[in-house]
């Protein structure tokens, strides 16, 4: 009880000094809890949606996915004859059954040809209005579609694009473009996470999406009273046979949920990973806080020891304060986490993913996890300072000798740090020298961990050298004030090392990712320059295939010298040795001009010969593994066609980036073995202008594809910029998440300076008494903060560039051969660190300047 009272008294006596540490705990816990609440809410939203939209039993056409998504290589949904509906209706235990048609491989445009598809990545669904949809949607304006000239749209999409009754829209599918006017608007009775949904009548949907009537993509079945879904499924399968996909409501909902779980898991664990980085940074802040508090209470601890307190009691007293800090920060963090989750939901709403606060889910495990993490991390971080406090002897404390200085421990620490750093560097060298990316990645991970820990442990030793260098370069120009700032930073190398290490971690990740991103862009750009011989690339950024109508629009564009189609077909490959190593792989079919559009290096033969009738190419590794040479016969069993024996006419190098590992054949050969109605659509289309007509052809292509806004026309400059933008957007998102760790590191600098000012109160008073002005005092503290921040930046940027350079060596095994250091970014981060130091010193410097000189001198 005495220990608890002492801890409570000390905690509240130093509540101002504990505040920043509490904020660090709060931010880290809030990020963890916010992530968990946000992902749990998304799971709840999708669970409700899938449960509401699943019928008792669903019959799908052969080839449909478990999720019901109707993507296919030819752009049309897989269908079954209408006779299946009649058979299902006759099945025992069926109350009702209804045939439907829908597709997700469509684009919908308004009258001005603006794309109405969601930009959030959610699907665009066009289908027939049916009874199952009527259970989850209510027509709130107008009426359901009746006739080919009518279409109904969901209310969210109508609001987003300002659509109203009577507006004309166009549905673009592999069949063609169908136009209709909005006859009705339907509102979801459950939360729609962001899909754009359009309804046609059944006949029109069949003609628009499939190109013929008398077919369905699904049959929705409702069970009679007393019949379970499992029994109904069994009865339906017995009636219609095994040529169809039959699923219960639970199976359909589970398949849909599994489909989104991958995305949610990646998001969840990525965000938790960044929260872990913030926790790691916060550990340094807490260690520094308690180390300085223990040092400032040396005499108090000595008195406690003198009147009978044991080492264990002193230790327990400090840990109890840490426990209070952890509980306080974690409780606030849990509450803030719910706020962060709501904020994330609002942000997702702004980019098109709708999440309702009605579905806000706070599982009991979330606050428990937040509290446990916050408390455990805080107590563990305070353990070393607490242990150090327990070692203070009563007489040394009463003489104000401070915490014991253990030179031997310092030497051991330096030795351990050097060994860890050396092991980390050795692992990074092993990663760089690896022959396989899988082996190298293991060494890279080990090297990152060991070098990071090594730099943290060896930080005090590095502080002594780097701070002196920084002082000589930056601080000496400020005269005596600069020299005092340098000495203050060197006064306690362990403290400076821990404070700088907190900033080092976040900046090391920033530098590493910057190097990797820049190297990827530079390597891909170099590959484009060397290998791509076409002027224009036409493709969909959302991954949709190019419809025949769009291809024809490209071919009809004036000023083009050639147009090359490029598509993939799924097949099984049997090698001459009788093995079938690839049972579901893609073969790339293109026009013969692709050999000119892509200057792929070959190790045997010419790529142009692979486009001869009944010919193909294989890549180098595949050829070596299966003893394939020029003239070998490979049996190719096309999934949507028949079996062909193709002659290998070329073996391509595996050391490429574009189309790495591709096997080529001609579209004419593919058409020989795959029926016309099963032929896959083009993945993209290449076009080259006639000499001197590049600019004219570029404008003409854009004009020709105006009616197809789902496709983008890019020249090589555009393509390179798009690649750079994609990587840049990803890096910016990661930098945004790392900002939490950097904020916590800034709090660490603020806290270190604030406690340092308190620790040096008497010294500051003496300096003021002998003539140091308030302005000089504030400048001294600001310069001390700047040099600590730059010390952390030097460590972080150096370490991160080393990690990035090693990662690039692994990328080189995949053909990304160029290492590029983004010096602009590195320089900006280094300069920004100086401003971080200035910002962190504002409050401590202001408080120091306001000290009363006489009171400061009288302080013990």
How do you describe this structure in short?
With 860 residues, the protein is α+β, with helices and mostly antiparallel strands. The strands form 4 sheets. Strands 15, 16, 17, 18, 19, 20, 21, 22, 23 and 24 form a 10-stranded mixed β-sheet that branches. Strand 16 and strand 17 (582-590) form a beta hairpin.
Structural write-up:
The protein is globular, with a radius of gyration of 34 Å. The chain is of the alpha+beta class and 860 residues long. Strands 15, 16, 17, 18, 19, 20, 21, 22, 23 and 24 form a 10-stranded mixed sheet that branches. Strands 4, 5, 6, 7, 8, 9, 10 and 11 form an 8-stranded mixed sheet that branches. The chain has a 4-stranded antiparallel sheet with strand order 3-13-1-14. It is built from 28 helices and 24 strands.
The main β sheet shows up as: 10 strands, mixed
Rg over CA atoms, rounded to whole Å, is: 34 Å
| Helix share bin | 55-70%
Q: How many helical elements?
A: 28
Number of domains: 5
Q: How many β strands by DSSP?
A: 24
User: In one word, what is the shape?
Assistant: globular
Instruction: Tell me the fraction of residues in β-strands, as a range.
Output: 15-25%
Assembly annotation: single chain
**Unreliable parts:** 401-405
How confident is the prediction overall: mean pLDDT?
84
**Strand pairing plus helix content: what structural class?**
alpha+beta
Q: Quote the distance from N terminus to C terminus.
A: 29 Å
């Amino acid at each position: 009880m005495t220990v608890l009272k002492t801890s409570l008294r000390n905690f509240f006596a130093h509540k101002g000094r504990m505040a920043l540490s509490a904020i660090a705990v709060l931010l880290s816990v809030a990020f963890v809890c916010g992530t968990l609440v946000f992902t749990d809410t998304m799971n709840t939203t999708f669970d409700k949606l899938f449960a509401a939209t699943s019928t008792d039993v669903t019959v799908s056409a052969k080839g449909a996915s478990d999720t019901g998504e109707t993507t296919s290589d030819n752009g049309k949904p897989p269908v079954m004859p209408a006779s299946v509906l009649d058979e299902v209706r006759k099945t025992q235990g069926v109350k009702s059954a209804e045939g439907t048609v829908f597709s997700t491989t469509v684009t919908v445009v308004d009258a001005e040809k603006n794309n109405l598809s969601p930009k959030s990545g959610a699907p665009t669904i066009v289908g027939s209005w049916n009874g199952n949809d009527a259970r989850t949607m209510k027509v709130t304006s107008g009426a359901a579609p009746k006739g080919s000239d009518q279409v109904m749209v969901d209310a969210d999409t109508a609001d987003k694009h300002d659509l109203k009754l009577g507006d004309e829209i166009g549905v673009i599918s592999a069949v063609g473009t169908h136009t209709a006017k909005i006859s009705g608007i339907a509102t979801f009775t459950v939360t729609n996470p962001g899909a754009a949904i359009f309804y046609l009548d059944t006949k029109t949907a069949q003609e628009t999406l499939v190109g013929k009537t008398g077919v369905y993509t699904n049959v929705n079945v409702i069970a009679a009273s007393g019949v379970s879904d499992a029994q109904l499924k069994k009865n339906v399968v017995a009636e219609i046979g095994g040529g169809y996909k039959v699923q219960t409501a639970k199976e359909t909902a589970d398949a849909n949920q599994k489909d989104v779980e991958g995305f949610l898991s990646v998001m969840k664990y990525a965000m938790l990973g960044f929260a872990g980085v913030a926790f790691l940074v916060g550990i340094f802040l807490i260690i520094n806080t308690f180390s300085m508090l223990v040092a400032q209470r040396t005499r108090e601890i000595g008195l406690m020891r003198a009147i009978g307190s044991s080492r264990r009691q002193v230790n327990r007293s400090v840990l109890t304060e840490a426990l209070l800090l952890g509980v306080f920060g974690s409780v606030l963090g849990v509450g803030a986490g719910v706020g962060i989750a709501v904020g994330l939901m609002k942000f997702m709403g702004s980019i098109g993913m709708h999440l309702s606060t009605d579905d806000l889910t706070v599982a009991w495990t979330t606050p428990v996890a937040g509290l446990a993490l916050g408390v455990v991390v805080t107590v563990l971080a305070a353990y070393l300072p607490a242990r150090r406090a327990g070692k203070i002897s009563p007489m040394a404390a009463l003489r104000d000798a401070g915490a014991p200085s253990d030179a031997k421990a310092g030497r051991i620490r330096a030795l351990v740090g050097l060994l860890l750093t050396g092991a980390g560097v050795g692992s990074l060298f092993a990663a760089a020298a690896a022959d396989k990316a899988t082996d190298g990645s293991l060494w890279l991970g080990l090297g990152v961990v060991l070098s990071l820990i090594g730099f943290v442990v060896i930080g005090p030793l590095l502080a002594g050298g780097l701070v002196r260098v920084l002082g000589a370069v930056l601080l000496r120009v400020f005269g005596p004030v600069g020299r005092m700032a340098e000495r203050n930073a060197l006064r306690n190398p362990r403290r400076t090392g821990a404070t700088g290490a907190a900033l080092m971690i976040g900046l090391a990740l920033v530098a590493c990712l910057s190097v990797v991103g820049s190297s990827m862009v530079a390597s891909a750009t170099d590959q484009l320059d060397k290998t791509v011989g076409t002027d224009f690339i036409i493709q969909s950024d959302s991954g949709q295939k190019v419809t025949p109508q769009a291809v024809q629009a490209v071919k009809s564009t004036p000023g083009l010298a050639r147009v090359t189609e490029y598509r993939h077909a799924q097949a099984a490959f049997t090698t001459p040795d009788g093995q079938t190593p690839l049972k579901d792989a893609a073969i790339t079919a293109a026009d013969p001009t692709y050999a000119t559009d892509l200057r792929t290096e070959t190790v045997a033969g010419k790529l142009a010969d692979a486009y001869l009738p009944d010919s193909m190419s294989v890549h180098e590794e595949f050829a070596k593994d299966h003893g394939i040479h020029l003239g070998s016969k490979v049996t190719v069993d096309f999934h949507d066609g028949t079996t062909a024996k193709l002659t290998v006419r070329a073996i391509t190098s595996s050391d490429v980036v574009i189309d790495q590992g591709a096997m080529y054949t001609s579209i004419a050969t593919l058409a020989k073995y795959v029926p016309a109605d099963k032929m896959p659509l083009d993945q993209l289309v290449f076009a080259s202008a006639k000499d001197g007509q590049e600019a004219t052809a570029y404008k003409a292509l854009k004009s020709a594809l105006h009616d197809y806004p789902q496709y983008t026309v890019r020249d090589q400059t555009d393509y390179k910029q798009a690649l750079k933008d994609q990587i840049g957007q990803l890096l910016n998102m990661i930098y945004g998440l790392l900002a939490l760790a950097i904020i916590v590191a800034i709090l660490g600098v603020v806290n270190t300076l604030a406690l340092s000012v308190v620790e040096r109160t008497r010294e500051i008073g003496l300096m003021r008494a002998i003539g140091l002005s308030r302005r000089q005092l504030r400048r001294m503290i600001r310069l001390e903060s700047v040099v600590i921040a730059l010390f952390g930046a030097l460590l972080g940027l150096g370490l991160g560039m080393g990690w990035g350079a090693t990662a690039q060596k692994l990328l080189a095994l995949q053909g990304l051969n160029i290492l590029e250091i983004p010096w602009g970014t590195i320089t900006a981060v280094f300069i920004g660190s100086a401003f971080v130091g200035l910002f962190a010193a504002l409050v401590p410097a202001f408080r120091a300047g306001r000290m009363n000189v006489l009171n400061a001198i009288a302080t013990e």
